[in-house]
Amino acid sequence: MRAHAASLLVAVSIGLAAGLGVYTFVYAKGASYLTNDSRACANCHVMNEQYDGWSRSSHRAVAACNDCHTPPGLIPKYATKASNGFWHSFYFTTGTFHEPIRITERNRRVTERACRKCHAAVVDAIDRFHEPGRELSCLGCHRSVGHLH
Amino acid sequence: MTNPPRRFLPFVLTALVAAVAAIGGAALLVNIFQHKQEARNPFYRVVDLTDEIDDPAIWGKNFPQQYDGYKRTVDQVRTRFGGSEAVPRTPTKADPRSVVAQSRLEEDPRLKTMWAGYAFSKDFREERGHAYMLEDQTFTERQQVVKQPGTCMHCHASVYLPYKKLGGGDLMAGFEKMNQMPYSEARKLVSHPVACIDCHAPDTMQLRVTRPGFLEGIKALKAAQGIADYDPNTMATRQEMRAYVCGQCHVEYYFKGKEKRLVYPWAKGIKVEEILAYYDEQGQVDWTHADTGAGVLKAQHPEFEMWNQGIHARSGVACADCHMPYERVGALKISDHHVRSPLLNINRACQTCHKWSEEELKARAELNQERTFRMRNVAMDALVELIGDLKSARDGGRPDAELTAARGFQRKAQFYLDFVEAENSTGFHAPGEALRILGESVDFSRRGQLAVRGVAPVASGAPLPRPSPK
């Protein structure tokens, strides 16, 4: 009888925690982060400026956030999303981040590769003679194509 | 059944873990809720603002964030080449201030030589923040040496409403009336330093120019560029307005004629030589130099003019972009109304566009400033030497006719030097232009010294022979 009551208590506790978790996930539009919709990236307002900039940029019609900020391939893409999702949430929740916000070195490399993926023909012609480690950076000159800030 | 607690331990622990998870989930939920609330950009209209309310505290009720920043312009912070330092002083009856900024005359006594015979040689302190503009103008010792006109209020007080009241609803009429009043009379009509109403329309918060001096000045400048009847309030872009509202006051000016009308000398353009050409044409002399008898000019804070010659202006960067950069407050993006040196706010002022570290950006700015400062010292020495030569010649009984050319060079050298000296960026607003002006100032001083010695002046500014293109 007692065991039964204890199991019930545990079940209710776990149910409450799970329910709260599910509600939080839905309330925070968690599922939207699994999509390719750029609006999801501005769910939390800290990316408003970047989203606004992108929606006026030359690339808005051909590339969404994920096209430049995640690597190709399903697993690398979602691994990057998971990592960025966790750290972005962490810093946004704790409020400990540099402003204006800056891209991390890893994410910059992801973006740099994205430029070279679509513009391979052009880039190859420009960059073929540069030694490894001394490649040109697309973003050095074309910083504003995605979003200026 | 003998030891029930041990049997229940796994259940209790699981329940505890679930409880901690629930607490974490709830905390996160509340945090997300708070962030979503900030994203609603709340605006509460507490008071109805009209064009008849000039008290910034009332405007501040609707815009507490901006008002909070505005009030912080009381801060006195030094930068390497500028900024003010709080210097304590004993209040007197004539001057109740207990804190002032450092004296520039004590820092560099050569300024007294440059301004000999002018009120600026009596008292000249580093400018402080906007909050002090009215107080510092009211109590400067310059007031005791000369009778200042009411014109000064144009830029030392929130004057839009007082002008309109004085002019019976007509801004321009009020401006003209106040210009002709004695300072002490005009002072009674104003009560705030620059306030919200001076740059914002009360109904839309849109930027607007309210200063008659700028309205007339920019009209003359645009007319010189072939644009007739220019009115910034209807013809300027939003980004232009983000510089024009500052250009209402941070400019070179003079008081024209007996009416003491405030005029921005831009009818020929806003470069230093264009402004000087305008003054020469008008026959304007601010004062006669006490040591040399030359009719000279005082340049005053031509920030707008200097910025216009720089790379930032050319790239479309306005005053407000660096001096009132956007900041995020919750989800709100607001202009920082704590107007100050960008060097005190490098991450927001510079890093929005320039992706380098704060140290690097500061070093770049200070490199430009140090170069300007060194060259300014060279130009200052040259001018002081010219003034010394002229003074000896004059004291030695040389007739005025023989000193005319040298005095002309002093007028030029001094105005050019002061154009950079009085400009509040130590060259940063346009580094190349600042050095060009100082270089020419040195040239004028040395030519003046040659003229004192009777060496025939070579036409200054004659075009250099160009290498012919092959």
| Largest interface in this structure | A-B, 29 and 32 residues
Shape of chain A: elongated
**For this entry, what is the oligomeric state of its chains?**
heterodimer
Unreliable runs of chain B, pLDDT <50, ≥5 residues? none
Give the strand line-up of the largest sheet of chain B. 1-2
Q: Roughly how much helix do the residues of chain A carry, as a percent range?
A: 55-70%
Properties at a glance:
heterodimer; A: 149 residues; mainly alpha; Multiheme cytochrome fold; 2 domains; 7 helices; 58% helix; B: mainly alpha; two-stranded antiparallel ribbon; two-stranded antiparallel sheet; 23 helices
Task: Explain how this protein is built.
The complex is a heterodimer of chains A (149) and B (470). Chain A is 58% helix and 0% strand. Chain A has 149 residues and is mainly alpha-helical. Chain A folds into two domains: 34 residues; 97 residues, Orthogonal Bundle (Multiheme cytochrome fold). Chain A is elongated, with a radius of gyration of 21 Å. Chain A starts with a helix and ends in an 8-residue tail after the last helix. By secondary structure, chain B is mainly α. Chain B has a two-stranded antiparallel sheet. Chain B has a two-stranded antiparallel ribbon with strand order 3-4. In chain B, a hairpin with a 4-residue loop joins strand 3 and strand 4. In chain B, helix 9 crosses helix 10, helix 21 packs antiparallel against helix 22 and helix 22 packs antiparallel against helix 23. The longest helix of chain B is centred in the last third of the chain and has 38 residues. The N and C termini of chain B lie far apart (109 Å). The mean pLDDT of chain B is 92.
